[in-house]
Specification:
Protein-Tyrosine Phosphatase, Chain A; alpha/beta; 15 helices; seven-stranded mixed sheet; globular; single chain; nine-stranded mixed sheet; 457 residues; UDP-N-acetylmuramoyl-L-alanine:D-glutamate ligase
């Protein structure tokens, strides 16, 4: 009798989710979380009752989840695996429920050989109380949306609560707080990926803050420092905590030619050359390798991989053209990666930074995260002028001046339309726009902006 009731519950929850999704899309909404929310209200433990594929890959972390999940999925499909993934990107339990139930038959069986799930780092513990991923990739823990997340150590505790013995952990060895998860597990069923740090790759954190300076186990200062915010070599002389050995190693990283080498033999061309993209690609290589995909298939798929979740948009103005780099508000590391692209491009350029809304979801006007961004890196001879625009342009002005940017290079125009018009008066230099996922739409929809390639979703 109980089995029959469970079958009816599953059929009802799947039907409600599929129906709500269809209605939502018909009305022009995304429908990525509300249908799952309705299904969970109807059957709270529905994720425990459905039949998942034999392989379930979960991906979490502060940065790079969506891009990495897309790469993993592309490799699996290239290898002939029928793969389902939450493409819409809604990664809390309601969004995961929507994704999985829409992929289910009415009997509750997910129609795929592999499920790849992007999961929010704070809410993974809610999702995985109902089922266990077979492989759990944890990428990084940065300062991200402080109004929601607090300090990375708070997020660490939330992720720790989402880990169960059944899941194999694949961890970023270059992140002390992430690798601590392996230590707490006694290194059982744990694998690592990371970079082989040499003098040319650097081992000293050039950034404003260094959350990885102190040992996450005993709290004492660690030796060797870190690189690019968190990643790097580290060792605690007090308790012995140290960077673990890696099964998948970045043995070469050339950001000038956008080339990445893994384990000394696998060479991959990147579409966008920055440290984050190298780590995301390495993570995708590690996961797909571990689930049995051969290296040639992985390399061929990841070579020049073009993400549909664009982070760079090519645009044309009347007299000027350039690239809009899509960063993540309330996340300094995301902006640092955009700055890295501008820094490494030696052509004369002008830069526009737009901060018009802090958050798409939360009512906040906190701009403290602007002080964690390495704007000092823009104080370069080839950066000829910097336009500051949007509601928070004056906050940006203070930050730029204290970053040492010469006053004559700073142009403050609150109106995004007028700022773009002024930027378009310069013919001879390429242009960069740095802004977030929501504010980029305000730029792209201006009448004198024509998108040449790339769509940000």
């Amino acid at each position: 009798m109980n089995a029959l009731i469970d079958k009816i519950k599953v059929m009802l929850a799947v039907a409600v989710c599929k129906g709500a999704t269809a209605v939502s899309r018909l009305l022009g909404h995304g429908g990525s979380s509300k249908p799952g929310e309705l299904a969970l209200k109807l059957v709270p433990d529905i994720l425990e009752k459905i039949h998942l594929p034999e392989t379930v890959i979960a991906v979490t972390g502060s940065n790079g989840k969506t891009s990495t999940v897309e790469m993993i999925t592309s490799v699996l499909r290239s290898a002939g695996k029928k793969t389902a993934w939450n493409k819409e990107g809604s990664n809390q339990i309601e969004g995961v429920a929507t994704f999985l139930l829409n992929k289910c038959t009415f009997s509750g069986r997910v129609k795929a050989q592999v499920a790849v799930i992007e999961t929010d780092e704070r809410y993974a513990r809610l999702t995985f109380q109902y089922f266990r991923p077979t492989h759990y990739l944890i990428m990084n823990l940065y300062r991200d949306q402080l109004t929601r997340n607090g300090h990375p150590e708070d997020v660490y505790k939330a992720i720790r609560d989402s880990i169960y013995p059944e899941s194999q952990l694949i961890l970023n060895a270059d992140e002390p707080l992430v690798s601590k998860l392996g230590v707490e597990r006694g290194q059982k069923n744990v694998l690592y990926y990371g970079a082989s740090f040499s003098e040319d790759m650097g081992s000293v954190n050039p950034g404003i803050y260094d959350d990885a300076a102190f040992c996450p186990v005993c709290g004492k200062r660690m030796s060797n420092g870190s690189q690019q915010g968190h990643p790097g070599m580290y060792h605690c002389d007090a308790c012995g905590f140290a960077r673990p050995n890696t099964q998948w190693t970045m043995t070469g990283m050339d950001l000038c030619t956008n080339r990445l080498s893994i384990n000394g033999t696998c060479r991959i061309r990147l579409e966008l050359g920055n440290t984050a993209q190298c780590y995301n690609t390495l993570a995708a290589f590690a996961v797909t390798s571990q689930v049995g995909i051969d290296p040639d298939t992985i390399v061929n798929t990841l070579n020049d991989f073009h993400s549909h979740m664009e982070r760079a948009v090519q645009y044309q103005l009347s007299n000027n053209s350039g690239t809009a780099l899509i960063s993540k508000h309330e996340n300094s590391v995301s902006y640092d990666q955009s700055i890295q692209v501008i820094r490494d491009d030696q052509r004369d350029c002008q830069v526009m930074i737009i901060v018009d809304a802090i958050s798409r979801k939360y009512n906040t006007s906190d701009t403290s995260w602007l002080w964690d961004i390495d704007f000092e890196e823009l104080n370069l001879p080839h950066v000829k002028r910097i336009f500051l625009s949007g509601t928070y342009c004056h906050d940006l002005t203070v930050r730029m001046r204290l970053a040492g940017i010469p006053r004559e290079k700073i142009i403050v125009i609150e109106s995004i339309q007028e700022a773009v018009r002024q930027m378009d008066l310069v013919h001879e230099e390429t242009s960069y726009v740095m802004t977030c996922f929501s504010d980029i739409q305000k730029f792209k929809t201006l009448s004198h902006v024509r998108v040449v390639s790339g769509e940000c979703t």
